[in-house]
Each structure stands twice: as structure tokens, then as C-alpha cells.
Structure to design on (316 residues):
């Protein structure tokens, strides 16, 4: 970092690197804290990779529902890998530096995978709606070509939504004495507040991305389940109602696991700046680490075909 007397007359400054932080106030026990983090990362990667292998190698799972589950698993792998290197570097080796451009790249992928996960959960709710409301035409509606197009649209949506974000940050003048981040990864609200410039455009565009992706997705997921509930209640047999609703339980749990931390994280960053930094750090880790860990557990417990296929993969 430049000494204080050397940047007085600099009109534009971008740091060579930011300093990351693990869990504030617990630096002395980062080595111990790294054990549960390493375990969670291992569970997330192993569980989601098992789901991908199980679906790929089990012909009976070559159905729309499991293709969408594969998309969710692949997204969780990407979300996990986007934060794993820097988080474990901080906790294991106390290596806290991340280059400015590397920070922007990590931030882009982190938020992109988050948008993709939201979109996949919406696609999965549409899949459940079609399967329950129109079971006879389910396979005809959700063909392989349709699923591929949905997947490409999801990736394109995330890429186009997040593509401007790094460039909006690169135009900012940063403060040489504000290079300490609040997390062990680069999070957009955190990075932009290190600038010594007007960040109104960044705030507004960030809010637009949140509302146009997670906000719209959550509304359509609620609408899908309102229609599903209407269809299920119209079934004559109570047994059929229970069976139809049981096919949605895993997805409902996955939606809660993803959206509750996302909403909490957004609210804290906008209205909870007075809260201790350790609260910000812990909520961020829950938001990024817990969903990839829990999703494979949820689907392996609630879906017998997935559970049996995963067990077969482990026995090979």
C-alpha cells in the first residue's frame, strides 16, 4: 500500500490488491474453524458430484426432473468452487491478498452462480407444475430440446445480468486506506463500498439485478406453487394428493434453503450496517456454503431413486 504522503494528489486510484478477512475476532482459531469449513466444502463437492454421476449413469433418471436437479447440482459445484480457494487460503494459511482484477472475476462468478441457482429453482417449480397439472403431456412438453434451451437461457440471463458489474466497479476511484474486505471472498456490496466515489449507479444496478432475478424468480415460484396447490386440492383421492405433494417437498426445502439466506444477506447489507462484522461474515458463509451442502442431503433423503443411484455410485 502506498504511504499516506504519496497519494495526496492522486486523482484516480485502484488498489493492486484487497485484503480479505476470515471471521472477525476469531483470527486466533482460524485453524480450528477451517475444519468444519473444509468438511462442508468436501460434503458439498462430493454430494453434488455424486448426483451428477448418478443421473448421468442411470438411464431411469433421464427425465426432466432429474435433468433440472443436475443443473442445480452443477450450479452448487460452481458456487462452492468460486469461494473455496480464497476462504481456505485465509483460514489455512492466513493468505489474505487477492488482486483487484482477480477479485472482480471471483465476484462475477460468485454472483452469476447465485443468479443461475435462483433461475434453476424457478425452472424446477415449472417442472413440478407441469408434472402435476398435466402429467399425460409432461414428457411431450419438457423434451430434451426444451430443457437444453431453458439451461442456455438461464446461463445467458446470469451472464448478461452480471456482465456490467465489474466494469461499473473499474470506473470507480478507490480509497487507498480502505482495502480491507469484510469477507474471505469478493462480494459486490462489500467491494463497491471501498470506493471514494459516488456509487449510486452501482447501488441502483445491484438492486436492479436482485429484483430482476431473485425477486422475479421468487414471485413466479410462489405463483407456481399456488397453481400446484389448486391442482392438488382438486384431486379426488387423498392418497393422490399426498403423493403429488410429496414430489414437491424436496424442491420446497431447496427453495427455502436458498432464498432465506439470500434475503437475510441482502437485508443485512442494506439495513444492518450497524451490526457487528462477525454477523455479516457468518450470514455470508451461510448464504454461500449451506445450500450446496444441504441440497444433496435433501434430495438423497427425500428422493428414493436418487438415493439408490448415489449408493450404487459409492459401491462401484
Amino acid at each position: 500500500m502506498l504511504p499516506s504522503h504519496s497519494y495526496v494528489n492522486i486523482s484516480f486510484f485502484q488498489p493492486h490488491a484487497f485484503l480479505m478477512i476470515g471471521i472477525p475476532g476469531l483470527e486466533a482459531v482460524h485453524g480450528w474453524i477451517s475444519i468444519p469449513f473444509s468438511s462442508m466444502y468436501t460434503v458439498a463437492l462430493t454430494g453434488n458430484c455424486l448426483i451428477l454421476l448418478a443421473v448421468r449413469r442411470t438411464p431411469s433418471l433421464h427425465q426432466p426432473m432429474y435433468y433440472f436437479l443436475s443443473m442445480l447440482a452443477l450450479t452448487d459445484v460452481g458456487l462452492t468452487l468460486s469461494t473455496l480457494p480464497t476462504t481456505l487460503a485465509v483460514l489455512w494459511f492466513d493468505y489474505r491478498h487477492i488482486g483487484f482484477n482477480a477479485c472482480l472475476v471471483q465476484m462475477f462468478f460468485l454472483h452469476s452462480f447465485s443468479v443461475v441457482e435462483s433461475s434453476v429453482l424457478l425452472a424446477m417449480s415449472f417442472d413440478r407444475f407441469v408434472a402435476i397439472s398435466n402429467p399425460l403431456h409432461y414428457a411431450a412438453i419438457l423434451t430434451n430440446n426444451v430443457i437444453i434451451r431453458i439451461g442456455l437461457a438461464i446461463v445467458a440471463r446470469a451472464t448478461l445480468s452480471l456482465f456490467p458489474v465489474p466494469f461499473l466497479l473499474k470506473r470507480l476511484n478507490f480509497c487507498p486506506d480502505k482495502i480491507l474486505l469484510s469477507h474471505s471472498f469478493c462480494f459486490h456490496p462489500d467491494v463497491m463500498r471501498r470506493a471514494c466515489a459516488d456509487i449510486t449507479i452501482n447501488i441502483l444496478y445491484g438492486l436492479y439485478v436482485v429484483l430482476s432475478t431473485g425477486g422475479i424468480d421468487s414471485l413466479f415460484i410462489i405463483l407456481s406453487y399456488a397453481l400446484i396447490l389448486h391442482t392438488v386440492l382438486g384431486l379426488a383421492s387423498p392418497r393422490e394428493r399426498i403423493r403429488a405433494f410429496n414430489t414437491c417437498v424436496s424442491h420446497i426445502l431447496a427453495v427455502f434453503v436458498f432464498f432465506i439466506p439470500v434475503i437475510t444477506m441482502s437485508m443485512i447489507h442494506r439495513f444492518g450496517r450497524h451490526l457487528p462484522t462477525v454477523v455479516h461474515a457468518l450470514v455470508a458463509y451461510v448464504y454461500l456454503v449451506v445450500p450446496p451442502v444441504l441440497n444433496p442431503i435433501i434430495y438423497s433423503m427425500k428422493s428414493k431413486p436418487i438415493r439408490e443411484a448415489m449408493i450404487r455410485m459409492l459401491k462401484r
The longest strand covers residues 17-19. The mean pLDDT is 90.
